[in-house]
Write a structure and sequence with these properties.
single chain, about 450 residues, alpha/beta, Rossmann fold, Dihydrodipicolinate Reductase, domain 2, 2 domains, ten-stranded mixed β-sheet, six-stranded parallel β-sheet, about 30% helix, Gfo/Idh/MocA-like_OxRdtase_N
Length: about 450
């Protein structure tokens, strides 16, 4: 059904690109938000605040959310009620919907985005844009093949703070930047154990499973706690961590690594969680212009129990990081031959020379939602800021790290073929078996 719709749009119907070219500067873009339990509400609010966009449809497999979300975000604010859908495939047939914002669990991201692209919809897809490397490659192929705007959910790409950070580092002002570090320390308690039980009323569980294997319903494999199950999530490195990995990779000015190591475990708790709650991952990249061993390193650390800061959350009044509190510390560090840099959501600060004296800094928030809408209205992919290929490269790192963790050894990787060197066991984890009819299409 979706494939036929996409084909019609690219052969006999008006393409999204040609539509964008005639979209007047005062026209509003009609957006549908898919997934409205948690982060989806941020998307509803973000688009509703824009004068050139309106949320005209909501989609969720849990119908219990429709009434409270519509009251809170539409009725109470005097906004027109949106249409509601349970099945995104039916939503994609609505020609009045110009764009979709995908805020589903990870295992649905790429497939939902590809189907939307084929249906002629502009797409903003939450991080991580893919659940594994194979489907991320297919998502990039679809974005390059069809004439629509596709935005990755790495919203820090829209912040002037991050843009000036990259300009500073890439301009050589920190010297040779040989290492970046991302951290995600979040106090997370045990999820316990939950039994298999009947599907709750109002939930289309088959649609929720989508491409994942068929399994009985359990609360720890459903709302939010799906993050800690390999069938649906990617652990904290693929939850909060993908934001900081994207910043670290951007600052290092690298794409895909040649060697990956990852160790860790699920400590302290005897519960249903499958993914590690403590994980230390190192990526090695070639650096032909570098001194010494001519390589760059990207470190990433997940810790489920905040015990001490990393030097970016309080020792120095000029140091600060994204989401610092008594329970969380999340951010980035960059190390160069001339000094080091701390980076948070809204500010970066350098400390230069042997005495680590405060140097240049930068700050500034952007608006990822507004950039997506502007990109659609002016038919300019660059305005979206979150390029889907860049998003895929960053997502590839989380998947490569998790694969190294799961097979339990250091892996050598070929960035050209996007396969491991003589390691069929690791290669098998580059994709998954898809449950019909929720199969990622072979786009090319």
């Amino acid at each position: 059904m979706i494939g036929a719709t996409g084909a019609a749009l690219t052969t006999t119907g008006m393409s999204a690109k040609s539509y964008a070219s005639i979209l007047g500067s005062n026209e509003r873009v009609n957006v549908a938000v898919i997934g409205i339990r948690g982060m989806g509400q941020n998307h509803i609010e973000g688009y509703s605040k824009l004068k050139n966009a309106r949320v005209t449809a909501l989609c969720d497999i849990d119908r219990n959310f429709f009434e409270p979300r519509i009251k809170k975000h539409f009725v109470d604010k005097g906004l027109e009620k949106p249409k509601t859908y349970t099945d995104l495939r039916i939503l994609y047939e609505n020609k009045d919907v110009d764009a979709v914002s995908i805020v589903t669990p990870n295992h649905w991201h790429a497939l939902a985005a590809i189907w939307a692209i084929q249906a002629g919809k502009h797409v903003s897809v939450e991080k991580p844009c893919c659940h594994n490397i194979y489907e991320g490659r297919k998502l990039v192929e679809a974005a390059e093949k069809y004439p629509v705007i596709v935005q990755d959910g790495a919203e820090q790409r829209s912040n002037p703070c991050a843009e000036s950070m990259a300009d500073f580092l890439h301009g050589g002002k920190l010297g040779e930047v040989y290492m970046a570090k991302g951290i995600c320390y979040k106090r997370r308690h045990t999820i316990g154990r939950t039994p298999d039980e009947p599907i709750p009323p109002g939930v289309d569980y088959d649609l929720w499973l989508g491409p994942a294997p068929e399994r009985p319903f359990s609360k720890n494999r459903f709302h939010y706690n799906w993050h800690w199950n390999w069938d649906y999530g990617n652990g904290d490195i693929g939850n909060q961590g993908v934001h900081e990995i994207d910043i670290a990779r951007w600052g290092l000015n690298v794409t895909l690594p040649t060697r990956i190591s990852s160790i860790g475990g699920h400590f302290m708790f005897d519960d249903d969680q499958q993914t590690p709650n403590t994980q230390l991952t190192v990526f090695e990249f070639p650096n032909a212009q570098g001194g010494g061993d001519a390589k760059k390193l990207l470190q990433f650390e997940v810790r489920h129990w905040l015990s001490n800061s990393e030097g970016i959350g309080g020792e120095n009044p000029n140091d600060n990081t994204y989401m610092v509190s008594s329970d969380n510390e999340v951010g980035n560090l960059f190390f160069g031959s001339k000094g080091y840099m701390t980076k948070n959501l809204n500010q970066w600060q350098t400390f230069m020379g042997d005495k680590r004296e405060p140097g240049e800094s930068g700050k500034g928030f952007g608006n990822h939602y507004a950039n997506f809408i502007d990109a659609i209205r002016y038919n300019d992919q660059k305005l979206a800021k979150g390029d889907i290929r860049e998003g895929f490269y960053s997502c590839a790192l989380i998947h490569l790290g998790n694969i190294a963790y799961r097979v339990g050894r250091t892996l050598d990787f070929d960035p050209v073929t996007m396969k491991f060197i003589n390691d069929p066991e690791a290669d098998a984890l580059l994709t998954r078996e898809y449950r019909s009819p929720f199969i990622v299409p072979d786009v090319v």
